[in-house]
Every structure is written in structure tokens, then in C-alpha cells.
Amino acid sequence: MSATRSGPCAPERILIMGAGAVGGYIGALLHQAGCAVTLADGWQAQVDAIGRHGLVLESPEGTSTFRPPAIPLSRLDRLAVRPDLILLCTKLYETSATLDALARAGLSGIPLVNLQNGLVDEAIAAAVGRDHVLGGIATGLNVAIIEPGRIRRDSASGLGEVFQIGELNGERSRRAHRIAELLAVVDHAVVVDDLLARRWRKLSLNCLSSGLCAISGLAVSALYRDPHARALLPRLGSEALSVGDGLGYASSMLLGVEAAVWHGAAVAEPGARERLHAAFDAQALAQRVDFRSGMLQDMLRGRPTEVEFFNGCIARRGPACGKRADTHAAVAERVRQVERGAMPMGAGNLADLACRLGGKA
């Protein structure tokens, strides 16, 4: 089932946990479409900015101001009406605290759609009950917070399957279809029956650039052109594909390139490297020149990164299924070092890791 961008939605009562780039963008457009949306966030500056001036969205289609209500997490128990649906858009390291806040506010038992990027669906299901949890993947939004109360989207809408909604058991349920219809007012939405495999594919894609951008300070487009990054990227992709296969999340492609090519480039096969370099060129061209990965944005703001749920996750999962993920482990450790101030951010980190790991550009 596919749902394209549509008109006004029914007056659903939707609580969005996390008013950052993704949650704020979705919430603003759902509110405009007629849904009774409330944004909740622990970032007081964001809540205050939305309350004072509204939420400004910049996109290739133009700039508009929206006024969805926004509250701090401390006011969850004062909601005027019980929501029909919760969208979880917080940082991954905030998941447990967010679920606790919902429970304390008496908001348990409400259908919850996890729109985070990592593999935390099963942990959420264990905490709130599997019957209450659906998963959602947002791909191609390319949104970032410019300052409190201002979000920029770098990609045009309507260009592909942006939202992929699914039940954890793969069922194409009526509620999954209804949620896809709701999110279609934001951008193209589909219902899928292979959510967890798609989660791994998105995680693998994020893990190519997020950590490397965070330690180098490079924007995504510059990263894909950097020769030292090009020595590390094939290894990161090959390891992610191998670990995913070991976990049963088999994926034959990454960046539109077959797994066999990634594995060949990881051991410096010339033809394979050339194929990947062409894919890296295309990826660089597809990005706004100053677009920064979310992990780099967090690093520059002095916020914790999600590295333990990205490269750190692949590094931990690899040995558990008999696959090595040494490059992901090395990138995760370097992110930790830069994050705590033990090493400076800079492109030299890419050269150092490429040398240590024996990569060849």
C-alpha cells in the first residue's frame, strides 16, 4: 500500500515525543492538516521558541511558519485530552527516559510509532507491550535544526518513499495503513512487511557517513569526496552488509551497489573500487554542499551523540553472529574520544584511521 502526499487529515489527537528536526517537521505539517498535534520535548529552548514565534520550516518549496502547541516533558501529565497516537522522535539515548515519562504521565497503552533510526523496536516493545508498538522509517527528509524554532529541509518533497510504516511481526495491519495515510500529508508513505530488514539497511547507510563526519568535521558531500574516507567507506559498507546477513537482515544493495562489489572494494579489488567511487560521486552530488550529518550536528552543539546505536551497534552485533566489524568499532571509539575531548575533531582522523586499518584509497 502506498499513500502520496494528500490533503487535510482527520482530527486525530497525536502526541509527538521529540520536537527536534524530524518530530518538529512532521508535527508542523500534521498540525496544518488539521490533526490535534502536541509536541513534547525536554529541550526548553526549542519549546520556548515555538511558543513565542512558532516553528519556521525552510524547504526547497519555500519558508513558512507553523504554530503547533509545544510543551516541556514536565507537563505531559497535564494534557487536556488523551492522545490517540504517539510518534516517538527523540534521540535514541533518550528512549528509556521518554518511555518512563509517558508511563508516569499515565499515557501507557496508546499505539506508539517509533520513528527513530536505530534497532530499538524490540526494546520498546518489551517496555510498553508488543501490541502497542509499530515501527516507522523516515528516509530522505534531510532535515536539520538551524536554531531553536527553525528547521530546514534540504530535499524536495514527493521524490520517493519517505515514510515506511510496519508492524514488528510484518503484518500489513489496518492501523499501519491508517498511520501511513496520516503521514502522507507530510510526504509519501508506504506500509511494509519487512520493517526490521529495512531498519538495518537505513542503519547501514547512516553508519557510512555519520561517524566519519563527526570525527572529521566534514559535511556529507565533502566526506564522500575525501580520499581517506573513500578508503574507509568500503570497509564500513562491507562489514554492515555482512553483519546484517548474519543477523538475518539480508540486503543485496547499499547506495545502489551490490554487496559483492562492497566486499570486493573492501579488499581493494580495482574494478570494485571504481564502481564504489562512482557511487560516492553520485552521493556527494545529491547532497547540499553544507549538509551535516546528525551526529556532526550533535557534536558541534556539545550534545551527546548516538554512536552507540550506530557504528557501536554494528560493532557489538558483529561478533554475536560470527562476523567481524573492526572498522565500525574503530570509528565508534574515535567518536567517543572526540566527544569527550580526548582527541580533536579534524580530517586527520580519517587519515589516521585509514592508515591504522590498512585501507587504500
TrEMBL record:
Catalytically driven reaction(s): (R)-pantoate + NADP(+) = 2-dehydropantoate + NADPH + H(+)
> What keywords are annotated for this sequence in UniProt?
NADP, Oxidoreductase, Pantothenate biosynthesis
Pathway noted in the entry? Cofactor biosynthesis; (R)-pantothenate biosynthesis; (R)-pantoate from 3-methyl-2-oxobutanoate: step 2/2
Q: Please state every residue range assigned to the domain named Ketopantoate reductase C-terminal.
A: 194-339
Q: What is a single cellular component term in the Gene Ontology annotation?
A: cytoplasm
The EC number on file is 1.1.1.169
- Keyword Cell cycle: yes or no? no
Its EC top class is oxidoreductase
Q: Which Gene3D superfamilies does the entry link to?
A: N-(1-d-carboxylethyl)-l-norvaline Dehydrogenase, domain 2 (1.10.1040.10), NAD(P)-binding Rossmann-like Domain (3.40.50.720)
Residue stretches making up the Ketopantoate reductase N-terminal domain: 14-154
Q: Name one GO biological process term.
A: pantothenate biosynthetic process
Gene Ontology terms for molecular function: 2-dehydropantoate 2-reductase activity
Q: Name the source's superkingdom.
A: Bacteria
What InterPro entries does the record point to?
A: 6-PGluconate_DH-like_C_sf, 6PGD_dom2, ApbA, KPA_reductase, KPR-Related, KPR_N, NAD(P)-bd_dom_sf
Task: Please give the PANTHER family that the UniProt record associates with this protein.
Answer: 2-DEHYDROPANTOATE 2-REDUCTASE, PROBABLE 2-DEHYDROPANTOATE 2-REDUCTASE
Entry similarity comment: Belongs to the ketopantoate reductase family.
Protein's name in the database: 2-dehydropantoate 2-reductase
State the organism of origin.
Answer: Parapusillimonas granuli
